[in-house]
Design brief:
Order of helices and strands: HHHEEEHH
Radius of gyration: 15 Å
Number of strands: 3
Number of helices: 5
Helix content: 40-55%
Number of domains: 1
Strand order of the largest sheet: 1-2-3
Length: 121
């Protein structure tokens, strides 16, 4: 497998700033269209870490058909990678930017969400 430098690039935020941003998101309605529009507007996808993970998936499973998610939304969440060969399997990368405040409980809830939608994680 090829070596990959997945150093996260970004501006660190204080705990107070993170709490304010988190509080601003609570109770905000999220329709399927708003989730898709938000993901498209960010257009930082794929980041360096995601490119490294995809390279590792393709190296390890060359015939599995792994690809970046091109818009599939599962229960209001957007997994990072999906299989393009018809197998219901997703991979979600938890980097520092989007998932910095995630707890083990929120990660398990996200896994249950994907499993309940009919896929594997």
């Amino acid at each position: 497998m090829k070596a990959c430098n997945a150093k996260q690039v970004g501006r660190p935020r204080s705990a107070e700033t993170r709490a304010k941003l988190s509080a601003a998101q609570i109770g905000r309605p999220r329709s399927l269209e708003s989730v898709r529009a938000g993901a498209k507007a960010m257009s930082r996808h794929p980041n360096r870490l995601e490119r490294c993970v995809l390279a590792a998936l393709i190296d390890a499973f060359p015939t599995a058909g792994w690809k970046f998610n091109d818009g599939l939304v599962i229960a209001g969440k957007i997994p990072d990678f999906i299989r393009s060969d018809g197998v219901k399997l997703v991979v979600d990368v938890h980097g520092d930017y989007w998932h910095r405040n995630d707890t083990p409980a929120t990660c398990r809830a996200r896994q249950r969400l994907f499993r309940d939608a009919g896929g594997s994680l």
